[in-house]
Give the backbone structure.
Amino acid sequence: LALTGVSLTAPDLSLSSSQLTISGPDAPNAGDEMRVDFPVRNFGAAAAGNVVVALQRILPGGSREEVGRTV
């Protein structure tokens, strides 16, 4: 059996934008609170701990801006 792209000795974390949900006002204004939920899956063989997940938006021109972070 050959596996590629999956760690057999370490955490192998994955998330998918197709499973991302955003809740809040339908027409948010600057400063309004929004909630973003998404599952983070571990396909590796080891447990993961103290994982930092950052949410970024892509600005015009391709630069990125961090809009949220959690552990």
DSSP finds no helices and six strands in the chain. The two ends are 35 Å apart (CA to CA).
